């Protein structure tokens, strides 16, 4: 039966363990000097050799002919433990045996003497999964076990263990294995398995493994179907992007090329690339750019070739440090939101667009063709006196129009002053429709509410589904939620947060106000007269003018 590579090439002695010399040396010295502890704690990230070292240690303490602290792998004890015929070494999965009853059964078992070896060794894997009651049941046994019992606890989340457990164990922290060490091991395994593995492909697998040799061997096993394992084949099988595509995206972000970035993401989507994996790679990519921007000797902190390092240095020159940090933060937030979002692609697209340093100028360029139409529609009603009488605008706009004498309406010298009150139209690409004098729909309002939700969820929830209009640098909010005005009046920071969100999305510094429908005052007098007439006739008993 075929055995996967990470099982076939699991180290049999401490000498074969890669990248954990500080641990293997100590364990060998304890075995040779016969200074053994009763409880050990192995902690570290996945695939770094915790369970492997525990099994080697269990064989070494029971081996009939140990060699410099290593098991001989030839005696009947070593072979019996390896094939499972000797039950003196027992591995327990705490994820599925985490109850108090399981620990009680364990306490009863440890009283039996070893069948063939010198010690009964209990390896409890993922020990952090034990319940609080199970930990309490284990305490006394862990502190004073019988002389023939050794406990080895293994976990990836040591912070979840009670302090009472930690204080009773001899702790060993396993480090992430260096990428160069993993690549070297992969080349050795490939040569033994008659695989044609390129050096750059081995380096890529080592980087993707993120310090876990087991993950690297598993990925190599998947790539073994290829006769010649190249970097391209590894990227295809692992479903990751090449560095060229990552630099293409970062270059598009630096230059504000929205179309280019979105088209690249569309290609990834068509190729069924996982957007969260793409986002994770972009975070690592911008992290490398940040290192090149801030560190004098980035080669010491980056795992890449000299050509890639040069590309990262050039990319760092196109960004400011503030933009790099902003982009990384946006990608981190997008990656978190992807867990609950219906469209992961949209989350990534929005994060990259928000990260563009020249966003304000980009928005300005996208509406350059619409600007003449907007200016014409705004200026035309002012030059025509009948138009002023036909249109009924909000009180703010009417006051501006009434202050202009009718005889001076055709005066062309006043047209530039009115145009200067509308510069915001150049940064409102989403405002559509027939633009007239005064207020107009604020098309970017949904984006403002979305931006606001990142740091003031209460106000964003109150504004969800609302509309807004814009008049010069005044943003009028149409919100029927009565509690919204109370929240604004009671806490000035809420109003500041709204202005901040508008500035982040559009680059505009604005004032805020409530939106009141047009012709409200004109409709008040006829209604008041009608109600008075009805009251005089005795039809209505009470009239409430609270809305006025």
What can be said about this structure in brief?
This protein has 548 residues and is an alpha/beta fold. 53% of the residues lie in helices and 9% in strands. The protein folds into 4 domains: 5-174, Rossmann fold, CATH 3.40.50.300; 179-238, Helicase, Ruva Protein, domain 3 (Orthogonal Bundle); 243-357, Zinc Finger, Delta Prime, domain 3 (Up-down Bundle), CATH 1.20.272; 365-514, no CATH class.
List the helices and strands and how they pair.
Layout lengths: L4 H4 L12 H13 L5 E6 L5 H13 L13 H8 L5 E5 L6 H10 L10 E6 L6 H12 L5 E7 L7 H4 L3 E5 L4 H14 L3 E2 L1 H11 L3 H11 L4 E2 L1 H8 L4 H13 L2 H13 L4 H20 L11 H12 L3 H17 L6 H11 L4 H8 L4 H13 L1 H6 L4 H8 L12 H5 L20 E2 L3 H8 L4 H7 L3 E5 L2 E5 L3 H9 L1 H15 L4 E4 L5 H17 L12
Parallel strand pairs: 1-4, 1-5, 2-3, 3-4, 6-7, 10-11
Antiparallel strand pairs: 8-9, 9-10
């Amino acid at each position: 039966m075929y055995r996967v590579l990470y099982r076939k090439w699991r180290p049999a002695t401490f000498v074969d363990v890669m990248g954990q010399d500080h641990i293997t040396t100590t364990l060998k010295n304890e075995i040779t000097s016969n200074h053994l502890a009763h409880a050990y704690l192995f902690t570290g990230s996945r695939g770094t050799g915790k369970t492997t070292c525990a099994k080697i240690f269990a064989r070494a303490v029971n081996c009939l002919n140990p060699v410099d602290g290593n098991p001989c792998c030839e005696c009947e004890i070593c072979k019996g433990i390896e094939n499972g015929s000797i039950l003196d070494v027992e591995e327990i999965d705490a994820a599925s045996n985490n109850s108090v009853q399981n620990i009680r059964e364990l306490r009863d078992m440890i009283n039996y003497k070893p069948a063939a070896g010198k010690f009964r060794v209990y390896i409890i894997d993922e020990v952090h999964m034990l319940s609080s009651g199970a930990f309490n049941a284990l305490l006394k046994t862990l502190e004073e076990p019988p002389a023939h019992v050794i406990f080895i606890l293994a976990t990836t989340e040591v912070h979840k263990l009670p302090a009472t457990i930690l204080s009773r164990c001899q702790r060993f922290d396993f480090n992430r294995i260096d990428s160069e060490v993993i690549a070297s091991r992969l080349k050795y395994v490939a040569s033994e398995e008659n695989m044609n593995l390129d050096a750059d492909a081995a380096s890529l697998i080592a980087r993707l493994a993120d310090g876990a040799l087991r993950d690297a061997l598993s990925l190599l096993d998947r790539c073994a179907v290829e006769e010649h394992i190249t970097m391209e084949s590894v990227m295809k099988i692992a479903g990751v992007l090449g560095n060229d595509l990552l630099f293409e995206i970062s270059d598009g972000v630096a230059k504000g090329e929205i179309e280019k970035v979105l088209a690249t993401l569309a290609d990834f989507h068509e190729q069924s690339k996982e957007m969260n994996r793409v986002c994770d790679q972009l975070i690592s990519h911008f992290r490398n750019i940040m290192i090149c921007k801030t560190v004098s000797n980035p080669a010491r902190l980056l795992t890449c070739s000299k050509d890639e390092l040069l590309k990262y240095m050039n990319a760092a020159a196109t960004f400011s440090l503030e933009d790099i940090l902003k982009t990384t933060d946006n990608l981190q937030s997008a990656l978190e939101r992807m867990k609950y979002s219906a469209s992961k692609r949209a989350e990534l697209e929005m994060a990259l667009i928000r990260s563009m340093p020249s966003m304000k100028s980009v928005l300005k360029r996208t509406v350059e063709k619409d600007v003449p139409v907007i200016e014409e529609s705004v200026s035309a009603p002012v030059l025509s006196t009948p138009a002023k009488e036909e249109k009924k605008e909000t009180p703010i706009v009417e006051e501006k129009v009434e202050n202009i004498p009718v005889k001076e309406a055709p005066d062309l010298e006043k047209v530039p002053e009115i145009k200067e009150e509308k510069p915001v139209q150049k940064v409102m690409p989403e405002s559509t429709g027939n633009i007239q004098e005064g207020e107009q729909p604020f098309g970017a309002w949904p984006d403002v509410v979305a931006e606001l939700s990142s740091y003031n969820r209460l106000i964003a929830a109150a504004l969800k589904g609302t509309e807004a209009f814009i008049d010069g640098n005044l943003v009028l909010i149409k919100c029927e939620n009565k509690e919204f005005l109370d929240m604004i009046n009671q806490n000035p920071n809420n109003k500041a947060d709204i202005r901040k969100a508008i500035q982040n999305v559009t680059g505009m510094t604005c004032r805020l106000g409530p939106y009141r429908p047009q012709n409200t005052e004109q409709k008040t007098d006829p209604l008041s007269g009608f109600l008075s007439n009805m009251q005089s006739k005795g039809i209505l008993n009470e009239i409430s003018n609270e809305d006025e």
